[in-house]
């Protein structure tokens, strides 16, 4: 490492030799220390040690002493004369610095015994400040009027003293960035033939291998904002995935879904049946930790034979997921016995919906991977696991397709639409002779003693969605007709709170 660093200093970084020299000294210091202790550390440990030491380094600015700009501290100006002086951070409590009680000896005792006090420090800074006027011709002082970042927003007492007690001409100027509110321009994308051709991948008009399907998330995106749908599902401008070694909000839901799927799938494989009864929960409850580790390995793309090492935030997140999974198993145990119809990875629910466009009849491909479908007697539950702030009270049925609603119902709209969409897909494929109950198992409410997974509509729990599915399909066709209509552009919805969190905000307001 030292040889490579020296090579860089000589060959490539002539202007930064001073910095690299100090970094070399740090590396040499660490190397000597580890060699004396006969320790071998991992590269990540060495890097952290280096960062800790390098963070405390103070490297002086380099420059020609007799010409050019000299950047220095106040104490360094002793016995030096300058024609032009620029003083930064001339805020009270910064220059001079505020009284810092860094000693256990009280001020009065220090004063009585002739020990240094903050008064002496102020006197030193006052002398150095006024001495700069000895030969100075132009003196510039800068201070921040904004009371933040440890600043009081007040100008230094030295500046006030100059203005009141001397005849030195002082010219004040206020420097600020003007606040300009840009007018948000309306953006509307015409549904040209080129746009229609891009949309055809969601229809039966292209070969099966090229077909993609519109999900509930895609339709929700259109209901929220057609322009958002255009960016994401027509132009396919997806946000870039970041590689992380720790679990964050992007991964949390995936690991929870994976954990529950692994638990039930392994249990069904073990007993050779899809029925879950009370006797299965001893094995399920003792398999949670192993299922979480499997889900972590899958989420981070690790091989089955590799052990996932829990550390940092992942330890906390795994405990949260475990408590969530334990609670779901507790609720399932009280509901048992029941039969698992399908889990998320089965991904077998899709359907073509015929619509009429101006040019042709097409079938739009819709589909979804439903988290869980189970059955008890003739009652079928369509369940969706949620780790966000989703609500279950959707208000009225009409709210599912947008329009004016309260903030509470707005939080429930997307999840409610998604579960209705799942129920419609299930009935389209499997039929429905009994009650179809869509519901959410959401982290926000699942730990409440009176938790109820069912959606709330018109103030009551929804015990069967079957009677609404025909109307839901009609409204769904109207929505698809609008998406594929060449006469209707993809325009942005009226500006709302959702725009603040939209990944395409910079495009719309740029």
Describe the structure.
- With 510 residues, the protein is an alpha/beta fold.
- It is built from 16 helices and 14 strands.
- The protein has helices at 2-11, 17-36, 43-54, 107-112, 118-131, 157-165, 193-199, 216-224, 226-234, 249-271, 281-285, 288-299, 313-335, 407-430, 469-483, 505-509; strands at residues 84-87, 138-141, 188-189, 275-276, 338-343, 349-356, 361-368, 372-376, 379-386, 393-395, 436-442, 456-457, 460-461, 490-491.
- The strands form five sheets. It has a five-stranded mixed beta sheet with strand order 4-5-8-9-11, sandwiched between helices. It has a three-stranded mixed beta sheet with strand order 10-12-13.
- Helix 1 packs antiparallel against helix 2 (17-36), helix 2 (17-36) packs across helix 3 and helix 10 packs across helix 12.
- The longest helix has 24 residues, at 407-430.
The DSSP helix count reads: 16
Overall morphology: elongated
- Report the average pLDDT across residues: 83
Q: What is the strand content?
A: 5-15%
- Main pleated sheet: 5 strands, mixed
Structural class, judged by helices and strands? alpha/beta
Number of strands: 14
Low-confidence spans? 242-246
Major sheet: order of its strands? 4-5-8-9-11
Work out the radius of gyration.
34 Å
H/E topology pattern: HHHEHHEHEHHHHEHHHEEEEEEHEEEHEH
Helix content class? 25-40%
Distance between the first and last residues' Cα: 45 Å
């Amino acid at each position: 490492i030292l040889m490579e660093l020296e090579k860089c200093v000589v060959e490539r970084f002539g202007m930064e030799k001073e910095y690299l020299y100090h970094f070399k000294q740090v590396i040499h210091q660490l190397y000597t220390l580890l060699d004396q202790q006969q320790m071998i550390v991992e590269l990540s440990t060495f890097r952290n040690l280096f960062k800790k030491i390098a963070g405390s380094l103070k490297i002086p600015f380099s420059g020609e002493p007799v010409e050019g700009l000299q950047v220095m501290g106040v104490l360094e100006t002793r016995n030096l004369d300058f024609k032009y002086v620029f003083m930064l951070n001339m805020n009270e409590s910064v220059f001079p610095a505020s009284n810092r009680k860094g000693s256990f000896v009280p001020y009065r005792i220090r004063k009585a015994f002739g020990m240094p006090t903050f008064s002496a420090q102020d006197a030193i800074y006052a002398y150095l400040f006024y001495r700069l006027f000895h030969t100075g011709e132009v003196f510039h002082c800068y201070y921040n009027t904004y009371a933040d970042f440890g600043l009081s927003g007040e100008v230094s007492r030295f500046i006030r003293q100059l203005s009141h007690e001397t005849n030195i001409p002082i010219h004040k100027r206020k420097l600020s960035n003007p606040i300009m509110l840009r007018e948000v321009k309306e953006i509307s994308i015409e549904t040209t033939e080129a746009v229609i051709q891009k949309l055809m991948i969601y229809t039966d008009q292209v070969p099966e291998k090229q077909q993609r399907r519109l999900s509930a998330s895609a339709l929700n995106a259109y209901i929220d904002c057609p322009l958002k749908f255009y960016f994401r599902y027509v132009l396919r401008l997806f946000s870039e995935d970041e590689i992380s070694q720790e679990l964050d909000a992007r991964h949390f839901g995936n690991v929870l879904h994976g954990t529950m799927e692994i638990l039930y799938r392994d249990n069904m494989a073990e007993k050779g049946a899809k029925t879950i009864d009370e006797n299965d929960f001893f094995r399920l409850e003792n398999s949670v930790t192993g299922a979480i580790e499997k889900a972590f390995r899958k989420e981070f793309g690790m091989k089955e034979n590799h052990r996932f090492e829990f550390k940092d935030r992942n330890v906390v997140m795994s405990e949260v997921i475990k408590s969530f999974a334990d609670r779901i198993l507790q609720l399932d145990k009280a509901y048992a016995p029941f039969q698992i119809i399908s889990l998320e990875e089965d991904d077998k629910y899709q359907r073509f919906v015929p619509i009429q466009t101006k040019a042709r009849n097409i079938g739009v491909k819709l589909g979804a991977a439903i988290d869980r479908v189970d059955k008890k007697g003739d009652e079928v539950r369509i369940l969706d696991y949620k780790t966000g702030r989703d609500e279950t009270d959707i208000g009225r049925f009409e709210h599912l397709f947008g329009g004016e609603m309260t903030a509470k119902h707005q939080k429930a709209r997307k999840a409610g639409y998604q579960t209705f969409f799942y129920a419609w897909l299930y009935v389209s494929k499997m039929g429905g002779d009994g009650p179809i109950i869509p519901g959410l198992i959401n982290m926000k409410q699942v730990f409440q003693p009176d938790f109820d997974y069912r959606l709330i509509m018109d103030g009551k729990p929804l015990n069967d969605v079957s009677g609404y599915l025909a109307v839901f399909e009609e409204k769904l066709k109207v929505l698809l007709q609008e998406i594929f209509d060449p006469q209707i552009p993809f325009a942005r919805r009226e500006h709302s709170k959702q725009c603040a969190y939209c990944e395409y905000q910079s495009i719309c307001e740029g």
